[in-house]
Amino acid sequence: MMALQERLGRNKTILANFSYLSLLQVFAILFPLLTYPYLLRVIGLELYGVIIFAQSIINYVSLVINFGFNMSGARNVATYKQDRARLSRIVTSIYWCKFILWLVCLVLYLSVISMVPFFEDHYWVYILSFLLTFNELMLPIWFFQGIEKMKYITFVNLSARLLFVVAIFLFVHRQEDYLLVPLLNGIGAILAGCLSLYILLGKERVRFSLIPVRELRSTYKESLPLFVSILSTQIYVNVNKLVIGSFLGMLEVSIYDMADKVLLLMKLPASMIAQAVFPKISREQNIRFINHVMFLSVGIALLFYISMFFGSDWLVYLLAGEHIEEASVIMRLLGISAILTSINGFFGGNRLVPLGYSFVYMRVMVGNCLFFLTAIGLLWLTESITMYTVTVMVVGVEVFCFVSLVYRNWQLGLLGMIPSELTEAAEK
Is the domain of 228 the same as that of 362? Predict the structure, then answer.
């Protein structure tokens, strides 16, 4: 008992941050699930599919604005959180870099949707969806994760999301109100960003300043391998909705998205744990600790999968109000990828990155992306693109990723020892 209390005391900060991250991510998934059945009935599967399709595009725009800063920023903030002057320069550099990328993305995005005929029918859905990028531009989750104070950002984010949910039920009553969905979502993102900046500047006393161009270049250079890694990951994780929408239709996007929302719930525990322990891993670089946490995450993911497997039909009925066999089958298949994602996260982002092997991680992720794109290309050439084949490809790439990451970790000797022990072993 005393040993347990001592261990809990040593990891008090981790437990607190895990709690706040849990609240943040649970409600980030729960709030859309609350509005999901209502929106399906009010605006219909087809229009809802258009909104999801637009959001999938915006996810990639946000990814460019992110540029890996959420990971490199959290790492640097965790390392220099006691040095207030250095901390302010880190924050300022990241915000300047993100703002430049946001402006570039805005110009390119408006140009594309204005010139490509595909976007004509629902032009304003795509325009209003861009407001969601303010979430990536303004919300400094990486900062609060690095200083291990997730309380403020959690309550800010939850307040904005709760406002969105309430607004949906208040203002969206007819199919013609569908444009309000991306508009209200965007307003929530802007409000959350403004409040978090107020906390950053007021409570945490971070000071913005002018940053030399060479320092901005250095910030971009540091995050480049992380950006490539995350982009590669997101291509094979999220491009499936774009493929389904382009080749099959918006109705199919809605069905696939239904299964994907449940998948996010399965991924949630591992994601929360990974984010909570990332600052500690960055500081201490204790591989034994990483392994312990990894096994815990995978165990929880397995329990979630078993529950979901037997309850998938009920979940589909709860969300859609009717039985949709395709959604239930896809849900069970995607669940396998959620288990693998839990493992891969701790072999990659929470092992290779904090231990200084960002370029190795990048090469693995690029390899996974190329594997997935090749597979999708073959499906397209053979005219075999369906919701089921795309789903199988998602699972297949996670298997490929697992094998690649384990091999790379084995090569580097990162599977079971602490770095100091590796050094001693090498000396002997």
Answer: yes
Hey, what amino acid is at 356?
G
User: In the prediction, which pLDDT does 322 show?
Assistant: 66
17 in a structural domain: yes
SS (H, E, C) 7-53: HHHHCHHHHHHHHHHHHHHHHHHHHHHHHHHHHHHHHHHHHHHHHHH
Element (H, E) at 131: none
Q: Do both 90 and 53 map to the same domain?
A: yes
Residues 6+ apart with CB under 8 A from 339: 266, 298, 301, 302, 305
Residues 71 and 129 in one domain: yes
Q: 202 lies in which domain range? A: 13-211
| pTM summary value | 0.68
Are 259 and 331 in contact, with CB atoms under 8 Å apart? yes
418: left (phi over 0), alpha (psi -120 to 50) or beta: beta
Pull the structure tokens for residue 21: 């991250």
Last residue of a domain, one of 211, 238, 258: 211
Question: Is 268 contained in some domain?
Answer: yes
Question: Both 234 and 189 in a single domain?
Answer: no
| The last residue of a domain, from among 162, 184, 211 | 211
DSSP summary character for residue 244:
H
pLDDT of residue 22: 67
Q: Tokens at residue 118, please?
A: 């595909």
How far apart CA 136 and CA 232 sit, in angstroms, is 18
Q: With CA atoms as reference, report the closest residue to 393 among 251, 229, 235.
A: 235
State the greatest distance between any 2 C-alpha atoms of the chain, in Å, as a whole number: 73
**Least trusted range by pLDDT, from 94-98, 238-242, 285-289, 416-420:** 416-420
Which two three-digit tokens encode residue 277?
């322990």
Residue 13 phi, psi dihedral angles, 5° rounding: -65, -40
* Nearest alpha-carbon partner for 39 in 203, 189, 175: 175
* Cβ proximity of 17 and 78 under 8 Å: no
Place of tokens 């950053």: 200
